[in-house]
Queue: 2 jobs
Job 1
Amino acid sequence: MPTSTVVYPARLIRTLAPGTPEATAVAVRDGRIVAVGTVEECLSWGPAEVDDTFAKHVIVPGFVDAHSHATEGMWSQIPYVGWFDRPMPDGSTAQGIQNYDDLVNRLLQLDQEIDDPNTSLLVGGFDPIYFRGSPRLDRFVLDRVSLTRPILVMHASLHLATGNSALLRKYDITRQHPSKSLGRDEHGEPDGELREPPAMSLAREEFRHVVAMMSDPGVIRFFAQAARNAGVTTASDLAANYLGRPEVAATVAAVTADPSFCVRLAVAPQPRLYSGDDPVGALNVLRNHANEKLSFPVVKVVLDGSIQGWTAMISAPGYYTGEDHGEFLYPPEQLTDLLRPFHKAGVTIHCHCNGDMAAEVFLDSVETLLRESPWADHRHTVQHAQLIKPAQLHRAKALGMSVNFFVNHLWFLGDQHHDLTVGPERARRMNPCGSAARLGIPFSIHSDAGVTPIGQLHTMWCAVNRITVSGRVLGADEQITPAEALHAVTLGAARQLRMDHTVGSIEIGKYADFAILEDDPLTVDPLAIRDIGLWGTVLGGTPHRSTRRRGSPTAMP
Amino acid sequence: MIPVTIIGGYLGAGKTTLINSLLRDPGGRRIAVLVNDFGGINIDASLIASSNATTIALTNGCACCVLSDDLGEAFTSVANATPPFDEIIVEASGVADPRRLAEWANLPGLRQRSVIVLADVVTISDRVDDAYLGKTVRRQLAGADTVVLTKTDLVTSESVAAVMQLVAVIAPSASLTTASADEPWTLFKDCPTPRVKMWSGDVETLSEPHSSVHVAYTFRFSRPVSAEEVNVHFGQPIAGLVRAKGFAPVGGAPSPLLLQVVGSTMNLTPLEVAEDNKQNCSIVVIGIDGLFDVQQFAHAVSPLGLVRV
């Protein structure tokens, strides 16, 4: 079959490739880029069809998110009741819920859509951190929706849930129940709050449904659509529970191989203490299932908790308000042993470190491993790195490491960090992209979807402006330029995933993966980056039209 | 309902040693042991009926399973096994909070027996002040029903006494004992009521257990005493006293005895320590702030030769 070449003229192409940083046409054949430059230069490669679909658009490399989770797709399965408006993969927007009356009204509406009176109503994304002025959500609020249908509201942290009286009745959760993890009123009566998985598991069927949903192929498909709507062509699924489960890899391989599957999925399996005698062998078994849209390029471990959950490991003087519940998920002494087989086999390691103490432990481990087995191009990456300190950044630089900042926090939780969790000074130096840029540390920025919604234009906007919901600018000296931000969400992220030889820039030989924008993120007002319109993506030469007008979850309507 | 016991403690505290001895001699019980990894589990090959990556079934009806990410699934499957298990024992990871893990025992078919936390007397004093691990280790101890001191044969009785005092302050309502490799099952007693409030997520109104409401004082024995004397002074309620524990230089005993007082119940038990040293026996006394009058207490116990340090 003769292969055909398509030339896409554009208003502007930002290639992020040296020699031809700006172009006006790109030629695509067999899913790869064959030429970048002017229309004439592209046509000089031989006969081609000229497609003017993007003639008025700005083309940039398809965005890469080096820290996301396929769980973003779960909003296809359970209705969202979080604080902020949230884009849905089908193009609709779930309105944010900012008071209990709105919550009740939304639930009443959902209640009417379910015919069987015994079917439970399960919703998610509720976050009490935004309801500081209100009493905690309890069963009495939910009883206004139904006294007979069990209702369970999952909180955004996935560490808490609140049920109505019918749910408590269904599972015989009464005053006599021995659990200490139930919210109770002053008389000892359960108030509907189920704290932590042991208590959440008491709502057996509903909790099983949430757990099962996480590995549902439908969730992965919806995640791909959410990524497409954000201009993302390579998304990661980090710390996924794949090692030792090749059957899961086979299922996902089949899902991703479908021509309509619209993102490259980079899965980072999570090594565990029980991963067996040959964890690298287990990784290689997974790699046998790879295809053009599924890879297993790196592994990822989770070392501490979250700042907004008061479970990140933060050094003295600790949290600004509230109680320190910092937790390591591995004994620090065991981390090096856990990582050693991967390091020695040449597998890049990403490590979730929200708190600076977690970052320090990971830096120590990497330094030990590098002394044992030098490796110049390891690309070991500090993930989140929200509270990484200046001295730690210097160490990361000296060790040749990479950093991926969770800058979406600056918007979605910046005020809460300033007022509640870490206080003003540390809030101003959270996610220090400016420092990393000045030091020349390879870095990226991410969404951590489904914690915050995927949307690289929004993520760029956060790193460039560092503005909170209340309008504060957190640490202007840690802002970066739009060009640095664009690099971070394309090549920067691709390098961390060891995929920069195939994606991340528009250059000959790479996959034809593009984000198709309505404006140039480098020349618009930096405050307008998140409002740039987005046509969709091109993935391996195939256009995928977005079901939304804009790519950022926070864009002006 | 199957009783569930959680065994916690930091790395090196002796959790795996204890579990190996329970599996070696289950005393006729069918036990299910949930562990973090099989690395330290040491089972005689002749006892293994079958095994795969996550489960080892023993010929004596016991089983050893690796805890996966899905703890709910793991607990549910051991709760519903046929024939049913008699005991479920869970090894918490070195950084896990065993008290939180114990909450899984509220699932149908299970009940909480107790939370046992092991503390290695050689390292525990440093661990609780460690910048990285201090809070984790203190949280483990504070959540214990029983704290088991291990490796006491490696240090002097003074060191053991110092550790006991430390543990008493961190975990004032936990009972304290030393490891006995011969009789591991004596540790498996029901704890009447789990006491520690659970913390969860962003609920910050709950305070750290015991931190602000208790006061602790140390008293030293200036002379040997008799068991009867001790009983006279501690065998009755003392206003505001939560607990007292430490060593008593009991005349006639070859080494100091472990003294533990809870309410008006007093116990004197032999303790295995490296050296016999009756010269420097002390106890730590824990009371409720505002209720416990230390001066009145000091006056009351002065006939015993107890002097406040």
Note: Chain B touches chain A through 45 residues (CB under 8 Å).
Job 2
Amino acid sequence: MLEAVLKPGGDAATALYIVAFSLFIVGIKQGTHPTTAKRGNLIAAGGMVVAVITTLLLDGIGNWGLIAIGLGVGGAIGVIASIRVQMTEMPQMVALYNGVGGGAVALIAWSEIRHGIAEIDHGAIASIPLDTLIPVLFAGVVGSISFWGSNVAFAKLQDLIPTRPLAVPGQQVINALLLIGIVAACVDIAVNNGDPSQAIFIGVLIAAAILGNLVVLPIGGADMPVVISLLNAFTGLSAAAAGFALDNVALIVAGTLVGSSGTILTLEMATAMNRSVGNILFAGFGGAPAGGAAASGEERPHVSIGAQDAAIKLAYADSVVIVPGYGLAVAQAQHAIKEVADELEKRGVTVNYAIHPVAGRMPGHMNVLLAEADVPYEQLREMEEINPEMPRTDVAVVVGANDVTNPAAKNDPDSPIAGMPIIEVSEAQQVIVIKRSLSPGFAGIDNDLFYEANTSMLFADAKQAAADIAAEITQL
Amino acid sequence: MSLMTEITIFVLAVFVGFEVISKVPTTLHTPLMSQTNAIHGIVMLGGLIVVGYADDPLEYIIGTIAIAFGAINIVGGFMVTDRMLGMFSRKPKPKADADGKGGA
């Protein structure tokens, strides 16, 4: 076994913790750009290795058998779960990992309370100092909320419980009462810090657990990624609080970083999904919209992206199908689109064009426009020919087309365009729709495609958007 | 460390966290969330300290579970992030299976 050599809180241990959190900062920074993200993740993992080894080397650390069991069991579960998870199940996996992190924080808080009470009983201290006790209470409450909230999020995404919003009558009132009760109990513990009650603390953990369940249960599956991100930020803050209680600089910095960067990330996610965080948390809707029910003009949730995001999706795809429509013809965007295709082909992406019989202003118009822009003839594919290939397509880009891609033609027998042949872009892994707005096309009906989970909207003039995307791809 | 030193560190870390995340492409939202998720697994250090200095049975159990939870958080978190970011590696082989368009 390693000889314990570092003094807790000593210069050497602190220096190593500084190395660790510096690596976290660099890792997060690199995680914000596609070309460096993978390396950034490895750098942050390296920081974690430094932090863990430093802690294991602290003077006086014992009970190696238990530590080995905890590390062995937890590490093995983490490895196996990560290898076996399907790519489509990633979000719930993150929820689960976030939950156990929150659970760890709550358990550590409980242990710290017990430790403090034991010291008082032995007469080592007269009372638990508030600068330890308050962070411990915060960590316990937030950790418990995060644990249970994340588990509910996991269960919803995994279809273990219904993804539709589940509301309890009087929900907001119950939540408020629980929160008031939790705060009051925490104040009671803090005021009686010479003789704090472990029973009340356990009651606080349980009340926080119920609150965590009640807050997340009414939220629909579509909003879950934002909720998970928010819980992630909370867990970070609770880890920082544990750091205050344990006087551990690595925990304070790393936890706080996650708390603040996680908050920004949550806001950006909500914006990208066209939702507000407050709306998600308190309005209790946001389940996947019932198909076709929204011709009433109310705004349905959709994902809006910029040229840079579109460029990233395209540049890292294997196969891309471009679906040109009337809007492309109007915007005279065929040359700009060809430029995007050229940039993609330079990167080894297979590009095809799906031509609907009525795309453009007249049959065959689109082929002419594209031929004019020097698109090779063999890349122009007829609708019947390209549709079977859609499920194998990574990204379908709809440029100024609308009704010819509306899945309602296939799925909704009551739709005015029922039975019309369409290019089945919604079968592709991802869809990017370049369009000026969500407004209906020629048929005057809403296009369900815009609101599907794998569809991103890029609101812009087709020509401008294509030029921007081409420029962004060259930057990658 | 004095409380004021700790608060100073905390406030500075808040601003570093804000600064470091600016304008992230939506494609990277989930991987980045997953990476920061793995980083808060650092709370496992708390479990190590609890167990390392513990001397009563319940504390052994609480602390060992905390370590296991933290280890799942760390190991699973970084590995899942790495898998997500696999899509940004240069040109893997064409995808074998075609189902699984991003679920709601």
Note: The first helix of chain A runs from residue 11 to 30.
